[in-house]
Structures are given as C-alpha cells and as structure tokens.
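Checked the freezer inventory, then went back to the computational side. Two predictions to log before the end of the day. The first one is the construct we discussed on Monday; recording sequence and tokens without edits.
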Amino acid sequence: MTRPAGKPRSRSGVAIFHPLEPRRLLHGAVDVAINFQPASAETPHGYFADVGRPFGDRGPGLSYGWRRDSGPWTNTWTYERDHPASLSQAGDTLISAGWAADLCWEITLPAGRYRVSILAGDALAAPGQRFVVKVEGESALDFTATRTQRLVTQMVEVDLLDGRLTISAPDGVANTTLASVRITAVHDENGGSGGHVHGEDGGQWRGAAIER
C-alpha cells in the first residue's frame, strides 16, 4: 500500500523529526524597535518589549537584554509614568540604565553599519536633570531636561564589528533612563529590502530575509 505524503517515519512507524538549524539574521533585514517597559505595561504596536531581563534569546532570531561585567543581569528599574508629557506609549515607559557603572544593554546583530535612534528622558524629569547615553562606547546623547522638554530623540550611525550592539550610560549619570530604541541597517546604493518577520506583540524585523 502506498503511504500518503507526510512526516518521514522509521520502519517501526514512529515519526522522525529533524531539528531545525538556528536562524541567522542577515544585516539587510535589520529594522527592529525595542520598548523599555515594566512587564505589566502595554507594548506599543511595532515594538518588541524589553522588561529588564538578562541578555538572552527573545524569539524570532532576536537575542538582547542586560549585562554587567560578570555576565547577564536583571535590570528591575522599570517605570510607567501615565503622564501626558510622554506624548506616546513608547515615551511613557522607561528603564534606568545608569545605576551601575558596568551595566549595559546589548543586542546581537550581524556585522555592518546601523542607524540607532534612541528616545531617552523622563516625563517627570526635573529641569536640569541630565541624561547621557553611549552607543558602542561613544557618546550618542547628552540631554538636559527643561520645563518644556523632558524627553529627546537622538540618532547616530555606528559600524558594528563584534556582533553585539552595546548601549550604556556613563558612570556617574545614574538618572539616565531609556524609553525606546530603533535599530536599522544602513544600506549601500545596491541594498534592498524584502520580507519581514512579526513578533507576537506586533514587533517585527523588516528587510531582506532570515537565513536558516
């Protein structure tokens, strides 16, 4: 009798399963937005949530989170302000990034050039409160809150060679809080884009492909 098409089976009739190879993200596929927030907060559409968990696997091809010199580390200092000055949900939730000198946030990415857009500050910041952020060890944002502006977006471009993009607050600026970050591959004139992969919370990688 001809066996209908389906899963391969051994002679005993037990289904044979072959593990999938790990997915590897291509540089051209990178366009990811991360929202820093408490676990109980609503994740804005189009973002992946970071709730302060240690660096690790976060699902479809993504690995990110918090580290200290000793290894992956939990960052429990998350906030939700519910304040009109936040202007959006992405600006209303925050995480403290400067409470330890060796604390940093990292995401695994292929080598290449990236545009990094950081939203930092605090809707409840007092005038004169300073927020300082480094990307790959270089100054990316230095902002002092005023009565009329308490959050700011700053964009930089960086060349990534070691496979991990690192964001940190310099030692001594303990008030620095991050609201969100968006990381986009910078294409040359021959670059292009294609499909996308969605996360459960609406976040997505956009661009060329995910290679298995």
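The second is the one RB wanted added to the comparison set:
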Amino acid sequence: YKDDGLGDWELFSDGIPNVDVRELEINYADGFIYAATYGRGVWRSELRDQVPTCFYPLSGQIATVGLGEATVSWSDPTTAPSNGYEYVISNSATPSGLGTPTTANGATISGMSYNLDYYVHVRSNCSADGFSGWVTIGPIKSLPSCDDTFHDNGGAAGNYTNNQNTITQLCPQNSMNKIKATFTSFDVESDWDAMYVFDGPDTSSPMFASTNPITDAGFPAGGYYGSAIPGPFESTDASGCLTVQLITDTFVTGAGFETDLSCDINCTPPKLSTLADTGYGSLRHVIACPLTAPVVVDAGIMGDTITITSDPLNIWQNVMIDQLLSSKVTIKSELTGVSLFNIQSGQTLHLDNVEVLMPAGQEFINNAGVLEVQDCTVKGNSVKVSNNGKINILQNGNMKIIEE
C-alpha cells in the first residue's frame, strides 16, 4: 500500500502465498480488498486506509452517437451521492473548469464537429463529504455528414487496424437531402481486406458491389480493395444515407481511405407522402425537386391536412398542385408575419382543387411571378394577397377567399 503521505510501499497481505494474482477488487461496502489467484483461490485483506465516503460513478459508457450529438450514461455507486453528479464536456482527456450539476445518470453532447474527440468527465457530488474522483468517458466522435472528410479508423495519417469489422453510417443532417461519397485516396490490402458500400442506413441495404470475388480471408464478394479509387457513391435511398463497412484480417494493413462527403436534395421519388412541414416526402421537399408534372399525392394522406409551421413555401420553379377530387389534401398555415407561398419572378404556381386554411390577418400569397388558379378555396379572417405579378383564373375556374 502507498499513498501521498508514505515514502515507500507497505506490504499489504494476509498470509497469501507466492502465487500469481490475476485480479484485484476493492469492496468498500465491507472494507476488504480481494485477490483472485491462479490455482490458490480467492484471498482477502482488510483495507489499510479509511473507507471513502463519496464513491465514484459506475459503468460510465457511450450510450448513443448520432449526427453532431452523442449521449453518455453512468450508474449510481452502492451509496448514491446525496447531491447528484457534476460533469464536464471537453475535447481533452483531462477534466478542467467548472462542472455542470445534474441529478440524472447521463448527459448529452450537442453541436459536435466530426474529426474532433470529445470526452465527458463525471464525478459524484456528496455535499458535505465533497466530491469523488473523476470518471472519464471517451473519446467520442460524431458521425460524419455533409461537407466532412471521412477516413478509416487510422485517420488521415495512419494505417487502418487489423481484425476489425467497422460499420459507419453516413447520413445528411437534413432529411430532405441525400449524401454522396467521393473517394480521394484508397489503399486497402488486395485480395484479403475489403471495404463495402451500401445504399441506405445499414448493411441490409442494397450493396454498391464491385466485381471482386470473396476475399482470401473469406470476406464477402462485392468489396473494394487495392489502390484503384472506387465510386463515387450517391444514396438513392429514402433516408439519403450510405453505409460503409471495412473488414480486415489478422495481418497486413494499408493507408486506408479518404472520402469527401457532399449533400444534395434527395428527389427519388418526388412524391407528397407525409403531412409533416419538412422532411423527405413533405410538400416543402417535393416542390424543391425538379418537377415536370403535377405533384403526386400518396394515397396514404389523401383527405388529410398538411400543416406548415416553419417557413414560407418558396416557388423557385413551375409547380402544379393539381389534385383530383378523390385525392384532395388541405394545406393549413400556422405562419405569422410571412406569406404561405412566395412565388418568385418568372415562376408559376398552378392550384387546382386546393383548400387552404389561413390564420387571421395573415398573407396567403406573395406573388412576383404567376399564380394560376383553376379551383382554390382560401379560408380565414382578413386574409391578405400581395400581388406584383399576374393572377390568372382559368376557364370555368374560381378562387374563393371565405371569411370564417
């Protein structure tokens, strides 16, 4: 035994023979240290010093890792701290600065940047008995996304490691987008190790397969190896995600890979399929995609109401919302101080069999282009229309603004 007040070690045993000790554990609850030996059983000895009164948090671990965000968790010690915990989030493996108090058994890291290591340092707060020592959880990395440069686990300068099966999900932050991976360097051990790319959020998604056979290490066919740069790969999945898997054998590594990640709007297919204000399949998403025909409405939302809550619907191209009577969808605005639709100069918005619900005194349309109406009903008190372009009421058509 040795502490800061002793100049040298003191023998700490209770008759234990000269034998290999394979594991040591301290049980502060009963005041003993336990030694597990090789072939001579388990021995115990009373603790030399005073039992601490403020115990470390237990089982600190990374719970989830996402885009720009991660969560960590820990467990209460046998004697839970009277005043909860204190934690510090930093890019250093050494805690510093003031901690954030919490009574929860976890914390969230937000606003993470890819390629930076993050650590969570946590300690028990036992009020009058002070604090325990720090427990460090990490390093933690955010998942890569748009505009990041993604590497294998060796990073930009090192080789990837042996005996790994690493799966990384590459997804856009915006659910209306899709991700594209453009490899700029590639060096994976030929015939033995392999990298696989999947068109979706996991390895059950369709593979962007190469023509390579099963590797000499027995890894599946379709992987990429050698020094020829593969791709680029662009997601066609509704999630907008790609998944990259690297499998390596026991011997020989390479410099690995570097890939630039970029994002664009995901328009496969541009169908109105959700009532949400934003996200894949929303009206906002569909009208941002290149359109050569009327907006297609999925049967699953016919007769329902789309609620717009965040920003105006900007018309940057010719958009035709032309619904059959049987597939009518109502558009409800909860916007204040801005228009529901902004029609840009030179663009046309065509509305047929559309019902719009507006909040009192708010603006339905700010038109700098062309509003073309076959049949449109707008309901609300003192609804406004700002027109600096053209409004065309088609033959046998009508536009009704109903006060209610």
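For RB: The chain has one helix and 29 strands. The longest strand covers residues 390-402. Let me know if you want it refolded.
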